[in-house]
Amino acid sequence: MGSKNFEGGAYDVAIIGAGVCGANIARRLSQYELKVILLDKEADVSFGTSKANSGIVHGGFHHSPKYLKARLEVQGALMFDRLHRELGFPFRRCGIVVAALHEDEMRVVDQLYRQGVENGVIGIEMCSRERMLELEPKLNPDTVGGLYAPAGGIVEPYRFVFSLVESAQRNGVEVRTSFKAERAEREGDLWRIRAEDGASLSARYVVNAAGLFADEVSRAFGAEDYTIRARKGEYYLLDRMTRARPDRVVFPVPTSVSKGMLVVPTVEGTVLIGPTAEMTDDKSDTATTRERLEMILGNARAMIPAISENDVITSFAGQRPVLEEDFHIEPSGKVPAFIHVAGIQSPGLTASPAIGEYVKDLLKEAGLRLVEKPGYDPVLPDRPRMFDIDHYQADALVARDPAYGNIVCRCEKVSEAEIVAAIRAGHTTLDGIKYFTRAQMGRCQGGFCTYKILKILMRETGMSWDRITKRGGGSELLSGRL
Amino acid sequence: MRELSYDAAVIGGGAAGMAAALEIRAAGLSCVVLEREEHLGGILLQCVHNGFGLIEFDEELSGPEFAERMEEKFRASGADAYLGVTVMDVEDPGDRKVLFGYSAEHGILRVSVRAVVLAMGCRERNRGNIRIPGARPAGVYTAGLAQRLVNMEGYLPGKDVVIIGSGDIGLIMARRMSWAGARVHGVVEILPYPSGLTRNIVQCLHDFGIPLYLSHLTSGIFGGDRVESVEIAPIEDGAVRFEKAFRIPCDTVLLSVGLVPENELSKKMGVELNPMTNGPWTDSMMMTNVPGIFAAGNVLHVHDLVDYVAEEARRAGAACARWIRGERPGRELRVKAGPNVRYAAPCRVGPEAPNKLYLRTLIVKNDAVLEVRLDNRVIQSRKKPHVQPSEMISVTLDPKDLADAGPDSTIEIAIL
Ligand SMILES: Cc1cc2nc3c(=O)[nH]c(=O)nc-3n(C[C@H](O)[C@H](O)[C@H](O)COP(=O)(O)OP(=O)(O)OC[C@H]3O[C@@H](n4cnc5c(N)ncnc54)[C@H](O)[C@@H]3O)c2cc1C
Ligand SMILES: Cc1cc2nc3c(=O)[nH]c(=O)nc-3n(C[C@H](O)[C@H](O)[C@H](O)COP(=O)(O)OP(=O)(O)OC[C@H]3O[C@@H](n4cnc5c(N)ncnc54)[C@H](O)[C@@H]3O)c2cc1C
């Protein structure tokens, strides 16, 4: 994705890390007359923590108002409606319930309620057992009561990032993937940033939004020395045919370390259960384990008894970048023109639009001049999806482009035209296409469509078979030609 | 939107779809087959090995040869076929049913018919379905996808292979991958006996010296970008011995862990499924609970022989034609899976005509006996030298034996 060379002088801002934070920052900056580049070490954007999480736009009651993250969470959550209108990513305010299964948990619920009120959350409600079961009939009948936050929502996180990045690109931001920032030095007023493969570029300001690896990036710039640790969260994904799909996000009563394991009705109609919370030493370890997965099923069933292992279509895990209790967003005190956006664990996704705003202000305070760009266009053109339209609209679309009539992924109803659009938007790995289109994401998990996507990918990009990968790096799919 | 009108439509142009259409045409009705792929034949096209057609054509053919022969008969029958058309929806406004087929060539086809035969085949169960934990590297394929890549696209998915599940597709792929120059390091099966046909165990594993790990659970898949190993643990006396788990290094995992009838479309139409087969419940006319919707082949229950598929589908097609002409199921007897029988299909039969039933057993046994009982009275008893879950059993009921069946009579089938 993006251009190969960096001609034309220094960038005003280089953002390291194209997760949900980097993407929001990039799009926010694309409103100004600035030369901005968004860098990521992976083959595509959103391949880090931002692709594997619960996808919840939180309700603003989980964290105490003394934290920056609580403020950014509430502020960020409010920004989703407008972003959704402008960018069209899957998002819905389905509401959140917190279900207490024992009387003694109601104390914590009460505390969450007061926290929510203090944070300025609107519409939050303490619920009786009857009210809970009315809000969510699939709940365990032993529920004793709980909390309801009607404004809480769900979002498809990678599609959120993709649309932010695309919007930023349309407004002039450059994106460069497979660029691992490894070393940096000052050259006069500029940072020279060097990649693993020898490529380099220079920028006046650097934003370190490198997620799990923000510590390494900080050290590479000679900035503060800190350590990001990884806390893994494992999930099961259930088929959209499951009978256990709740109408709202269902939370248990949280513990001190995590918000607990949830049942999430995803925007796309499937159901997600999890996550666990387990520290790991290996930041690349996103393996799932038998014990944890069993635990998830048990916990999820305690809240929604209809959940069945027969509905499982896949499992996966993500890692929270853990630094301190709060987000660490501030300019370096050690080196100039370097801003840390580190330790963004939950509710990072929810807060991310507000983080974009906040970082823009920090850059301004640090001397970056912000001049509004006259041609800034916040709206992404509508991209039709066969899944969303009726037969008559589909017929009109196929008349325009026959490739819409060729259904490649039957489980998620994705056409060839949508795959081609993904490839043209720069998503040239199997996973990139999957996250962009949902092809291979349904119940057959690519059993039928993988070879079709391979062929379209080769045709559209001219890549030979041995260069097709699942997600870049050494993840080649094929090992020989017969 | 292009509109078409026929007496009957068949969804899916594999062996079942073609056979059903043949019989509908033979009864003098018009019929269209809607097939998603660019060719008729379905799964047969990727099964390049021999072992098809002994009943339907009286000789041993490869999958593509069987498909070709079937297609000749199909073309000669005068049925229409639309290829590259995926049926996405069936509406049932009353008298006629309306199918919506999506295609690049024709746009959206709106096909109005009086009856429908479901012949969508099945899909493979995948890693998520059997919940193998671990990493998610490249190099994990279902066996059928690998078969497609090797036999039809000409690509080798990997060089050092472990196959999980001893179903027929997995066994055949063990041999196919070996022929293609890959090393197959083992086939892992959770059950104490293989789930594929005995002939495939011999011809695909023994002849190639490929180890078969019976009673082993696959407890993890490991690797970074690409698969690096598979971990398996023995099962002893019903308990998984995780402390005895070991890893087999490999770069590729093929999953052959069962097939599931492809009934998402059927469910959307209100067709009810038998949880034992994941296929529709059908009556003595092979009709589902939705009047005018019939089913045959792998969409009804997973078959291991295409000849049985064709036979069953011919019956469904013929019954569909009779239904269109006004015949309705007469008196029906309920068919019940008795001791050691997983399921029998169809689940209702008429007492008058000869009835053919297909069933699967739950047990592995030599010198078994198949018993058919009418209200606890044995009406048929046959010796079976060997039975196992992977080999489908067929039984034909003689109308004579059903003569004195009462209105509430039940037929029970048992393997003893
Ligand atoms: C299990 C789990 C559940 C969660 N659930 C929720 C939720 O429901 N709601 C919510 O609001 N939040 C949730 N979160 C938190 C949220 O996912 C994160 O806060 C957010 O995704 C962090 O985004 P990021 O951009 O900081 O990091 P990332 O998405 O990890 O982005 C960092 C990027 O930097 C790149 N990078 C790293 N090093 C370099 C380098 N040297 N050079 C170039 N690029 C580099 C990486 O490849 C990566 O793409 C959850 C997190 C987890 C793990
Ligand atoms: C690997 C393997 C090895 C086998 N080996 C043998 C053997 O040695 N001997 C033997 O006799 N039998 C063998 N069989 C079994 C036999 O070949 C199959 O059971 C039989 O071919 C299935 O036929 P079918 O028509 O039911 O399904 P399929 O062949 O799967 O046909 C279903 C068709 O429906 C189409 N379709 C599905 N949904 C839609 C939709 N919505 N719209 C339009 N079209 C749709 C599909 O594209 C497909 O073409 C083997 C099977 C496999 C998988």
Describe the protein's architecture and organization.
- The complex is a heterodimer of chains A (482) and B (416).
- Chain A has 482 residues and is an alpha+beta fold.
- Chain A has helices spanning 20-29, 68-78, 80-87, 106-118, 129-135, 157-170, 214-220, 290-303, 348-365, 391-400, 416-424, 430-437, 450-461; strands at residues 11-16, 36-39, 56-57, 91-92, 96-100, 125-128, 145-149, 153-155, 174-176, 181-187, 190-195, 200-208, 229-238, 249-252, 262-265, 271-274, 278-280, 312-322, 328-331, 338-342, 407-409, 414-415, 480-481.
- Chain A has 13 helices and 23 strands.
- In chain A, the strands form five sheets. In chain A, strands 1, 2, 9, 10, 11, 12, 19 and 20 form an eight-stranded mixed beta sheet that branches. In chain A, strands 13, 15, 16, 17 and 18 form a five-stranded antiparallel beta sheet that branches.
- Chain B contains eight helices and 33 strands.
- In chain B, α1 packs parallel to α8, α4 (143-153) packs across α5 (168-179) and α5 (168-179) packs parallel to α6.
- Helix content of chain B is 21%, strand content 38%.
- In chain B, the strands form nine sheets. In chain B, strands 6-3-2-10-25 form a five-stranded parallel beta sheet, covered by helices on one side.
- The longest helix of chain B is centred in the C-terminal third of the chain and has 19 residues, at 306-324.
- Chain B has three domains: 2-123 and 260-329, 3-Layer(bba) Sandwich (FAD/NAD(P)-binding domain), CATH 3.50.50; 126-257, FAD/NAD(P)-binding domain; 335-415, Sandwich (Immunoglobulin-like).
- Chain B is an alpha/beta fold and 416 residues long.
- The interface between A and B is large, with 60 and 55 residues.
- One flavin-adenine dinucleotide (FAD) binds at residues 11-17, 34-37, 42-44, 47, 51-52, 86-87, 119-121, 147, 168-169, 172, 262, 265, 297-298, 303-307, 309 of chain B.
- Residues 16-22, 39-42, 47-50, 53-56, 58, 179-181, 209-213, 217, 233, 275, 318-320, 344-350 of chain A line the site of one flavin-adenine dinucleotide.
